[in-house]
Amino acid sequence: MFAAMAPAVNNPLAGFCRDCLARQPGISARRCEACGSPRLARHAELYRLSLAHIDCDAFYAAVEKRDRPELRDKPVIIGGGKRGVVSTACYIARINGVRSAMPMFKALAACPEAVVIKPDMEKYARVGRQVREMMQALTPLVEPISIDEAFLDLAGTEKLHGMPPALVLARFARNLEKEVGISASVGLSYCKFLAKIASDMQKPRGFAVIGEEEAVSFLADKPVTLIWGVGKAFDEVLERDGIRTVGQLQKMERGDLMKRYGTMGERLYHLSRGMDERRVHADHEAKSVSAETTFDTDLASPEDLVPVLRALSEKVSSRLKKAGIAGRTVVLKLKTSDFKIRTRNRQLADPTRLADRIFSTGLELLRKETDGTRYRLIGIGVGDLSDAARADPPDLVDLQSRKRALAEGAIDNLRDKFGRSAVETGYTFGKGRNARPQRDGDS
Questions:
Q1: Nearest-angstrom CA–CA distance, 102 and 82
Q2: Is residue 129 part of a domain?
Q3: Is residue 55 annotated as involved in ligand binding?
Q4: pLDDT tens digits for 202-231?
Q5: In total, how many domains does the chain have?
Q6: Does residue 149 have an active-site annotation?
Q7: What is the pLDDT of residues 262-275, one digit of tens each?
Q8: Binding site annotation covers 148?
Q9: Which of 162, 228, 285, 309 is the most buried (most CB within 10 A)?
Q10: Model-level pTM greater than 0.85?
């Protein structure tokens, strides 16, 4: 197929059709001469670039719409109920002002006709694995960023696929819609920084290219917040210094930027000029495993919070065991009624994957925070991950720990056979829905 595309490769501005993949003989046509589609890909560096960022479009909402066709033309919000936040929203809801991380009451005020669906993380993870497998069929260099996005390096794959990376990516996007039933946007460039920017440019179902020759001019008029690491606080610092656009950074010397902003100044210098030497790493591992839930009403008492903490600890433990990993640092997360986040952590002597140990450590941290403060969210997780072979050695001081570990193993076996509700601990038994956390916060 690539051989048949020789004229297009000689004149990349002629491009190809993203729907039927047919090469285009000229550069002026607005529609594909083969199928009539207006979705044409053209760019002077189209066939020279090989680093891509693929991002599924409104992933959670897209999966739900795929499974419930009656929602196709309706605004859909994925989130944790009235007191939760928006995990994601379809593009119809976004047009009405709904945004990710927005409190649910604000989202429903902006789009009262929206259909709200609680997240089903297990389903999304299954679809995410399916998408990941399709990516890995393109190149071994796939670096996942989240459940629904990844960087890919397709350099050197032309002989394998019989076509240049740009066409491989367009074919992937087309096959994703046909085989999985969701869409994705593709950003193609020469570095990670610009590939990520490109994937956001034409959502949904986008395919954007940023070449090396145009990088500096493309970035010049963009706001400084486009640069990774420039959040709200740092943006205010730059604005106080009179710096609002990337073009202003391009005119500044590296030394001056580093003197003003330290290591961040060096990042500003390089990224403002489209200089990003980071490579795609296939072995990108998770840094933590956690679970959290948002309450329908604020909670303050240990009697209400402890059962939820126990259930979340069991959830994290289950994920660690299935993945064959363990964590050494336990992290407690709390969000107050006024949306302020508290995080507390404790490092263990050895890595663990036991719910009992995660919970007992989290409980010690929680006791110091139950001072009457009302919380809208609680989460527990572990970091500093390692192989499970190093986890939970016998404790010569706490002689009961071995018995608790054996009991937990027996409970796991029963749950695997009869379901999670087959066995409950005294912490969660009879405690109601708050002791069965919603699936709105896994990572």
A1: 11
A2: no
A3: yes
A4: 999 999 999 999 999 999 999 999 998 888
A5: 3
A6: yes
A7: 888 999 999 999 99
A8: yes
A9: 309
A10: no
